Amino acid sequence: MARVTDEQDRPRVAEHVGHAGDRTRPVVERRTLHETQSRHATDNRLGPLLEQYDVLICPTVATTALKADHANDDPDFRINGKPVHPYVQWTPTYPFNLVSRCPVASVPSGFSSAGVPTGLQIVGRTYDELSVMTAAAAVEAARPWRDLVPTL
User: Fold this and answer.
1) pTM of the prediction?
2) Distance CA 138, CA 126 (A)
3) Rounded to an integer, what distance in angstroms lies between the CA atom of residue 111 and that of residue 93?
4) What digits encode the pLDDT tens for the residues 104-144?
């Protein structure tokens, strides 16, 4: 039996990959367009708000803790009895991950009444890392959680 070399396979592999690319290109293009439009819409809403303040201080998550087996597709997921999207609505970091030109820092903020750690995120104006780092350093220097010890 003759052995087929990489050189001999190259045209067939290239043709197969090319056909797969032809089939997936419209899907990739639609997703890329949708993501670009989402980023633009988020930036348009967020930009004016950020111009009013030096930084925004937000919770890192909308609940104190998720169960270890949390499913990102759970249609019955709720926070404080209200239905929320199980993938994006419990984490307020999502808009800032989408608009990557906004610098963000996450710092500890203490512990919940249940004893689990909490955090906050500090969001700055576009490309204003200095304000974000200054605010984060101030929160960490104050250490409002310094006397709190989680129960194990």
Assistant:
1) 0.66
2) 20
3) 19
4) 999 988 888 777 888 899 999 888 999 999 999 999 888 87
